[in-house]
Amino acid sequence: MSAPVYGQATKVDAQLSTVPALERSHPSRKLIPGILIVAGLTWIFAIQYGQSQVFDVSLPIDSPHYQRLKSHCADVPPISKDEYLTRQTDLAELLHALGGKAYVAEPGANTQFYANFSNASWRLSERPLLLMISPIASESPVGEIGAQPQVTILTPKYAEWAEEDNPYSVAVEALSAYVFSALASSHARGSEGGPIFLDDNVRKFIDDGLKHARPDAVQVLTAVPAIKAMRERKSAAEINILKCVNEATLLAVRGVHKHLYPGIRESQARSAVASVLGAAGLTNGGCLTLFGENAALPHGSGTDRTLAESDFALFDCTASLHGYWSDVTRTVSLGPSYLSARQREIWEHVHAAQRVALSVARNGTRTRLVDEEVRKTLKSQGYGQYFTHRLGHGIGLEVHEHPYLRGGNEQIIEIGHTFSNEPGIYIEGEVGVRLEDCFYIAADGRAVLLTEGVGGQARAPWLP
């Protein structure tokens, strides 16, 4: 699909892949006969796990294993042209209010947000490739001064700068050609002396190049918080995509869980998740897979050890759909009969901590309070010292983005914010448990799980 930038724009094409559909249904369960039934819990385990099956990661996409996942996101469209234009107009209005000349960014999540092109298709190199959005002042029929977006892509082709030229001078001159003259003729306030706001992910050599191109005429500043915050509150279309990709990722983890068996290696299980995500049409972002005591290192790399009957297996998986990311973590077991009382206690404490976070996260609440309440809960149960990372992060066009649920963060939770909710208990050399479901703040101010459509939170270690 051709994805032009909008507004008064110089065109640039970026490919947006068509994502095959996934299915909004739970995998069917297979009854396995011939197993000795000892007690009620053993009966549950026997139905689901009595005959271990090796997960064949080489299964073709049209295999029955994958068919049940193939219509889940069929009706979830990418972000529309109109929404991109609205984003650009909102930014232009903000720049106009700030007296700014332009917002400048390199390919990444912010250029994806404003113009639907990112470093997924446009690789960074020593040659500058810049998105520049500037406010062009306009007057309404009743005399109100507003702004429309002027969008420019600086590349060797579109801005026609030669290799021997200074690209930063070309960029500044390009801005001068239409921004300064248009602002002056439209009586825009503070136009001539306004700064250029740089995205904070722009590389230093580009920052320096712009600052030195016209030091007498151009002030270059890092983008102010008001600009950075524009991505934080998600639209209905964004929430719809985030729901589907998180649901599909959870369904993939559940599907692979059904094929775990004693002796499978971390790498085999990780590859199985990747195969299911790929067959489902998602872009696999990786799945941290840790067995037993390896999971006690919350961001460890594992040792490719095999799974024992009494082990927990931790899966922390990400995938993307239309550029938006999932983040789902499950700590699972082969069945209830293999877990010790201590393992079940730890898992239940983490599960309860997730519910505490969901009850505290509300529109108008400070982000730090959500993290603090979860820590109080785990501390009261004797496990506070074993929760060793922040509670959560924002999620959207990046897996980790602002705002964050962490101590010391005074930012206020708002409608449209999206967060991960991932408490954990990590006892080095023994056990690690983390559970993660992302949520959004709905119009009524409450926290709603992005995975609610497929059952949401895990119900037990053997029912993820």
From TrEMBL:
<dbReference type="GO" id="GO:0016787">
    <property type="term" value="F:hydrolase activity"/>
</dbReference>
<feature type="domain" description="Peptidase M24">
    <location>
        <begin position="242"/>
        <end position="441"/>
    </location>
</feature>
<comment type="similarity">
    <text>Belongs to the peptidase M24B family.</text>
</comment>
<dbReference type="InterPro" id="IPR000994">
    <property type="entry name" value="Pept_M24"/>
</dbReference>
<dbReference type="GO" id="GO:0046872">
    <property type="term" value="F:metal ion binding"/>
</dbReference>
<dbReference type="InterPro" id="IPR050659">
    <property type="entry name" value="Peptidase_M24B"/>
</dbReference>
<dbReference type="InterPro" id="IPR029149">
    <property type="entry name" value="Creatin/AminoP/Spt16_N"/>
</dbReference>
<keyword id="KW-0378">Hydrolase</keyword>
<dbReference type="InterPro" id="IPR036005">
    <property type="entry name" value="Creatinase/aminopeptidase-like"/>
</dbReference>
<keyword id="KW-0479">Metal-binding</keyword>
<dbReference type="Pfam" id="PF00557">
    <property type="entry name" value="Peptidase_M24"/>
</dbReference>
<dbReference type="InterPro" id="IPR001131">
    <property type="entry name" value="Peptidase_M24B_aminopep-P_CS"/>
</dbReference>
<protein>
    <recommendedName>
        <fullName>Peptidase M24 domain-containing protein</fullName>
    </recommendedName>
</protein>
<keyword id="KW-0464">Manganese</keyword>
